[in-house]
Design goal:
Elements: H1 3-18, H2 24-39, E1 43-50, E2 53-60, E3 67-69, H3 73-81, E4 85-87, E5 105-113, E6 116-125, H4 133-149
Antiparallel strand pairs: 1-2, 1-6, 2-3, 4-5, 5-6
Helix pairs in contact: 1-2, 1-4
This protein binds methionine sulfoxide.
Methionine sulfoxide binds next to helix 3 and strand 6.
């Protein structure tokens, strides 16, 4: 199955999986699990806005940093710029936060609720250049579905 087919499947499954579930932590956890399992990424998870920082939320993969400041790293930059950031090579991103030395490329997608950023989806890959505009497109669609399910 190609990348687009995998993402189409995720979009269909996600809508059914988290519809009408009154459990934000569970919804975030299962969203991370679905994307992570289907796509075979290295690390897939959420950082959530709390007390003017990003705090580690539900994720799949190796242990990660607990807290990221506003504008710091790829996650903090995506929060500050309020847009998806695709990083082909983390070594070329000034201020990248290396939770794992195995991470080589990364995509961060903001999660909006009522036009405000409530967190970001962060995905890491062990290969350089994993993510492109196709990932950005489908992951933004997935985050819209997720947002609609969050209470
Ligand atoms: N690399 C991220 C930090 C989070 S970990 O990758 C899970 C960043 O630069 O924001």
């Amino acid at each position: 199955m190609g990348k687009i087919e995998k993402y189409e499947t995720i979009i269909t499954e996600l809508g059914a999986l988290i519809k009408d579930v009154d459990n934000n932590t569970g919804v975030l956890a299962n969203t991370a699990a679905l994307i992570h399992e289907r796509m075979g990424f290295f690390w897939t998870g959420f950082y959530l806005v709390k007390d003017k920082t990003l705090q580690l939320g539900p994720f799949q993969g190796p242990v990660a940093c607990f807290q990221i400041g506003y504008g710091k790293g790829v996650c903090g930059a995506a929060w500050q710029q309020e847009k998806t950031l695709v990083v082909k090579d983390v070594e070329e991103f000034p201020g990248h936060i290396a939770c794992s030395s195995l991470s080589k490329s990364e995509i961060v997608v903001p999660v909006f609720k009522h036009d405000r950023i409530i967190g970001v989806l962060d995905i890491d890959s062990k290969e350089i250049g994993t993510f492109d505009e196709v990932d950005a497109h489908y992951l933004e669609r997935a985050m819209k579905i997720l947002s609609d399910s969050l209470r």
